[in-house]
Design goal:
Structural class: alpha+beta
Mean pLDDT: 89
Low-confidence stretches: 1-9
Shape: flat
Number of domains: 3
Order of helices and strands: HEEEEEHEEEHEHEHEEEHEHEEHHHEHEH
Distance between the termini: 28 Å
Strand order of the largest sheet: 3-2-1-9-10
Oligomer: single chain
Helix content: 25-40%
Radius of gyration: 21 Å
CATH class of the largest domain: Alpha Beta
Length: 343
Amino acid sequence: MLSKIFQWFCKDLAIDLGTANTLIYLRGKGIILTEPSVVAVKEDGRYKKVLAVGEEAKKMLGKTPVNIKAVRPLREGVIADFEITEAMIKYFIQKVHNRGYFVKPRIVISVPSGTTQVERRAVKESAEGAGAREVYLIEEPMAAAIGAGLPITEPLANMIVDIGGGTTEVAIISLGGIVVSHSIKIAGDKIDEAIIHYIKRKYNLLIGETTAEEIKIKIGNVLPGEPFETMEIKGRDLITGIPKTITVSSKEIQEAIKEPIELILQAIKQVLEEAPPELAADIVDKGIVLSGGGALLKNLDKLISQETGLSVKIAENPLTCVALGAGKVLDEIDILKEIMIEV
C-alpha cells in the first residue's frame, strides 16, 4: 500500500547524465528538462556551497571570482566530482518535481559502455544519495538505439554511433544485446579543445570553452566547400595580453578538428572489423545511425559514408535519443529489465 502511495506522489525519471548536458524524461510526460551539466560552487575553506546549477551556472564559466568556481562534475562520461554530481542530480529531481523534498522516484540512468564497475557504482550511489528509490543503469548506445527507434530485439544488426560531449559510443546491437562495442573518450569536448589549441597555435589568441563550442556549431564542417564560411571571434592576445578580434574560416576549423574526427572514424572501423559476418551483411543493408550532439557536425554523416562505403543517416532527434531511449525503458521497465546493467 505504502509503495503505491509513493508511486502516486512521485513520477519516475529517466536521466541522460551527460558530460555536456543533462536531459530528464518524466514518465508519462516525455523530456521536460534539458540543462548544461554545470554547477557553480562557492568554496569556503573545506566547505562547498552550490550557488547555481545548469544554464545559470554555465553562464558563469570562465567569468567567476577566485572563491567561486563553475565546474562540470562529469568528465569524459564519468563522475569527476561525486559530491557535486549528487547535488546536481538532487537539484534536477527537485526542479522536475516542483521542489518536492519527499519525492523518491525510480530512476533509469544511462552510462557509457566503457565504464568500469566502480564508475557505474558511483553513478548509482550519486542518484541514491540524491533521493532515488531504485536506480537502474542502461548502456548509452543501447538507450540511443532505442531512442532512435531501431528494432533492437530483432535478430538483425543495428549499428549506432552516439557522439556526446565526453564519449563516442559505437555499438552493434542484436536480439536486445550489444554484440560489439567500442567507447572512446573523444567527442564534443575534445573537438572544442582541438579548436582552442589551433587558434592558440596559429593566432596566439586564447579563447574559452564557450567560444570554441560556438565556433564548432556555427562553422564546424568536416567537408567544407568554397566559398568557406567565416566567423569573427574574440579572445586574449597571448603576446600583448590585450583582447582582440580575428576572423576564422570553416576550412581552418576542418584542419583544427581533423585529429579527433580521425579517431572517431577509427573507432567505427574497429567495430565494423569485429562484427560477426552475418551481422556485417545486415549493416551493408541497413547502414549506420548517428546520434548525440556530434551527429550535427556538418557533413560528418557524408564523411563516415565515404570512409566506410555504408549508408549513414542521422537519427530524427539526435540530441534527445539517449534520454528518449532511457524513457522508453522506464515505460516498460518490467519487460526491459533484462537489458539493464547489473551493478
